[in-house]
Design a protein that fits this description.
Blueprint: H1 9-19, H2 51-56, E1 63-64, H3 66-69, E2 73-74, E3 77-82, E4 85-88, H4 100-104, H5 113-117, H6 121-129, E5 131-135
Parallel strand pairs: 1-5
Antiparallel strand pairs: 2-3, 3-4, 4-5
The chain binds protoporphyrin IX containing FE and zinc ion (2 copies).
């Protein structure tokens, strides 16, 4: 007699929200041979010919996982995270009074909540202009105390 396989509940939840209820089948689109995108979330690879990732890109979203955020660490695409807020600061980099690199060094997901709080009220309004959404946990990640599963 064989026991039922353990089910990874968090992964199932992610698939429900992305594919609209189809929890058994993996995404059907073909991944390109070089695709390094996380299959559990909306992370996409850099290959424009990757059908699996093209299918993920169809809707504009405001929730991002670390898998996605950690790709944006250059002057060409620079994302910051402060708490659970995600910012795309690419267009601001060259105007930053403390220089481009002080921001780029903090890009890709390390928590900038402290950096945010030492800025003036005026500067914090500028940060707000660059908000693109919220950080959510990728179903492939183990739950961590800094994330709330319910939100
Ligand atoms: C959305 C992102 C950011 C925006 C819009 C922003 C904006 C600004 C602005 C307007 C100032 C002038 C002083 C003030 O008004 O507080 C400033 C100063 C400064 N910022 Fe940022 N900043 C950002 C991210 C960061 C990050 C991630 C760091 C991390 C090191 C950082 C480090 C600094 C420092 C050290 C200063 C002081 C510069 C000085 O007074 O010489 N900033 N920032
Ligand atoms: Zn891909
Ligand atoms: Zn992921």
């Amino acid at each position: 007699m064989s026991l039922p396989k353990p089910v990874l509940i968090t992964a199932t939840m992610g698939l429900v929200s992305r594919t609209g209820g189809d929890i058994d089948k993996p995404p059907v689109e073909e991944r390109s041979a070089t695709c390094d995108a996380c299959p559990f979330c909306d992370d996409v690879c850099g290959d424009p010919a990757c059908a699996a990732c093209a299918a993920k890109k169809t809707t504009r979203r405001t929730r991002y996982t670390m898998c996605e955020v950690r790709r944006h660490t250059t002057v060409d695409s620079c994302w910051l995270v402060a708490g659970t807020t995600v910012y795309d600061v690419t267009s601001f980099l060259r105007r930053h009074p403390a220089g481009t690199m002080s921001i780029v060094r903090h890009a890709g997901g390390r928590d900038c909540a402290e950096d945010f709080s030492f800025h003036s009220a005026k500067a914090q309004k500028l940060w707000a202009n660059h908000k693109i959404g919220r950080l959510v946990r990728c179903p492939s990640e183990k739950s961590s105390p800094s994330f709330c599963l319910i939100s």
